[in-house]
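Protocol step 4 of 6: structure prediction from sequence.
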Amino acid sequence: MIQSMNTTPLNNSLLLQRSLSAVWHPCSQMKHYETFPLLPIARGKGVWLYDHDGKRYLDAVSSWWVNLFGHSNSHINNALVEQLQVLEHVMLAGFTHEPVVRLSERLRELAPAGLGHCSYGSDGASAIEIALKMSAHYWRNTGKPLKTRFISLQNSYHGETLGALSVTDVALFRDAYGALITQQAKVVSPDSRLAAAGESAQAYAHRCADDLELHLQQHHEELAAFIVEPLVQGAAGMSMYHPDYLRRARELCTRYGVHLIADEIAVGMGRTGTLFACEQADVTPDFLCLSKGITGGYLPLSVVMTTDDVYRAFYANETARGFLHSHSYTGNPLACSAALATLDIFAQDDVINANRSKAAHLNYRAQSLRENPSVKNWRNTGMIWAFEVDSPHEDFAQRCFSLALQNELLLRPIGKTIYFMPPYVISDAEMEHLVSRTLHIVETLS
């Protein structure tokens, strides 16, 4: 029998010590963990995470926006165990398998009309790389090789690989590696918080679309695509905007011959109140990027869905005209099985309608939080809530995170923006816990 090389039972202290010695944690300054310790997690169940001492934390951010139906979900667990007995992996270049075929067909049935072809990656940034490369390659294959530039919104976030960084407008990530990337143009964000006094979110969205039109008029001959996070810009502080912007963007991109890439990595899979955020504008993008919640938060998987028109541009005898992008675990059977199980839950539990009731209930329970004088710009789209806190503390995010842990909550503020993106299985009692403890935190830090 093969035994583990190290079977020493782990407690919180030992896990922290060994993690700091061996693990380089993402998006972190490792030195900060000397005074601001990591949170050791032993197990999860439902909306709760537990450390090795049994202390619990309500996962209000779905573990970086990925967990939809709770930790250790029995239906997804069973699907993975079943798939493990059959096939754990096979390369997708020159081979195929049932889970990836079934998943592709189901996504085609569910997605906005016309998106019938699925290209797979491992994570959100991979999906963005695929969409950007596929768009530029399409234009080369169709005789327009000069269309190699991209545009995105101000304050956008599309990932941290080099291609994705080129269309990301978060200074912390972009500036560190600016010398390595081709900087792409940004257009005004339709973030409703930026509307003029007395201007509606809808009117502001149209004003921003006018700015997009001006840019397209001037640069469409060199532009391959416009990439946008539909309805909610996540890393910008959960900035929300009116669906009319997407409608106008689709019309303008069609008029000027520029692809529309919908980055639904964070906002897809029911998070905005419909399975896909684009549904609320009744538009079909040229490329739809999905990841995060597609496997219920279990395994890395991403997919880019595209149209017959794009697919046909690559269909030829010459290999060089084919789409030249791959990685070893493309379309992994286990990840596809987790995604299929996730889609099963959506269908069997009528999740979209159930979420509307949950959102209404949380909004009702949050009235006292919403009316707190330190709470600004309360907003909600689907199963996403956000607000700013008027606080004198420059290190508000760190203080809030630490205080939340003391109150059995996992919150990760973006600056002075607190947001909720809980798993869809959150109960009424757990909503009350989330809201009441957050109110206490706001009052403490205001």
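Step 5 (inspection) to follow. The CA atoms of residues 208 and 385 lie 23 Å apart.
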